[in-house]
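Translate sequence into structure tokens.
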Amino acid sequence: MAAARCIVSTLLYCFNSDDSILLMKRQREPNRGLWSPSGGKVHLDQGESPYACGCREAFEELGIQLVSADLHLAGIVTEQNADSNVHWLMFLFEVKRKLEFAPPPHAEGEFRFFAKTELPKVPMPESDAHRIWPLFWKHRGGFFSAACCIRGGLQTWEIEESVRPPR
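Result follows.
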């Protein structure tokens, strides 16, 4: 049996002044052709932290300079995929600064702002639509940690930590 591969990544949840969310229509796998927050893989071999990765990805994909203080760690999602033996550890950051406009398209994909009410009609990964987005909205301003296990094509989810935002 081949050794499991673990990928550590970040996702950036960016909003404009109307509180619309910026999504990217991905040109590459994973999730090619689907809309999701921008982000990318943490360069673990270089000792990069998830926060540093979020700042780097914001510059590379969105053209904006961020520092760690511009990011709020909104959630952590682990995905253990027994079917593919590829596991993900995802750090979800809400960018505190509001964006004024959508970045121009580039090699990773094209960008567009969507109102929260539009999201159910937007083509996106199933786990984003049915699990991650509901958790993000429920905990926005707070924090959550969730674990997903995929076995035989079935997903099992467990909420490991839930810190609701102060009212």
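Note: The beta strands are 5-13, 21-26, 35-36, 38-41, 71-81, 86-95, 109-114, 143-151, 154-163.
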